[in-house]
Each structure stands twice: as structure tokens, then as C-alpha cells.
Design a protein that fits this description.
- By secondary structure, this protein is mostly beta strands.
- It has a single domain, classed as Immunoglobulins (Immunoglobulin-like), CATH 2.60.40.
- The chain is 0% helix and 43% strand.
- A 3-stranded antiparallel sheet has the order 2-6-5, with no helix packed on it. It has a 3-stranded antiparallel sheet with strand order 4-7-8, with no helix packed on it. A two-stranded antiparallel ribbon has the order 1-3.
- The protein is elongated and about 40 Å long.
Length: 81
């Protein structure tokens, strides 16, 4: 079984009222669509289907999220951040 590696292993810390950008990738391929499977990003941040999390968070705190990555064949992998 092939091991799928998400990058980065940990997301950079977001700071309230400061612009934020982080790119999630699958190291073995670029053909994945990303979404939040569980949890929520802080208010002010969103993630597009290419795995880019961006915006300006309007709150402080810890926001654990599980990210889902799905390829064109319907294969799904998850990463807890």
C-alpha cells in the first residue's frame, strides 16, 4: 500500500487580524481536491479545492480540523491538523 504524505506536517500558526496563507499538498500527486471533513477553520479563513487556506482570522484560539483529499478516481485520504 502506498503511503500518502500531506505537506506541511503542521500548519503555520494563524494570528488574529493578520493575513494568513498556507498551502496543503499531497506530496505524491497534484490531482487531489481538498475540503474540511471535520471541525471548522477560524472565522475569516477559508480553504479552496486546491488546498490553499487563506484570509484574515478574526478570532483567537485552537481550531483542530480534519482535511479530506480526494483524487479523480474517488480515493480519499485524511489528515488531522
Amino acid at each position: 500500500m502506498e503511503v500518502i504524505s500531506f505537506s506541511p506536517a503542521k500548519l503555520p500558526l494563524a494570528v488574529k487580524d493578520q493575513p494568513y496563507s498556507a498551502q496543503i499538498r499531497i506530496e505524491e500527486s497534484s490531482a487531489f481536491n481538498f475540503s474540511v471533513a471535520e471541525g471548522e477553520l477560524p472565522n475569516g479563513l477559508s480553504m479552496n479545492g486546491n488546498g490553499l487556506i487563506s484570509g484574515t482570522p478574526t478570532v483567537s484560539g485552537s481550531f483542530p480540523v480534519k482535511i479530506k483529499a480526494e483524487d479523480n478516481a474517488g480515493n480519499v485520504v485524511f489528515k488531522q491538523y
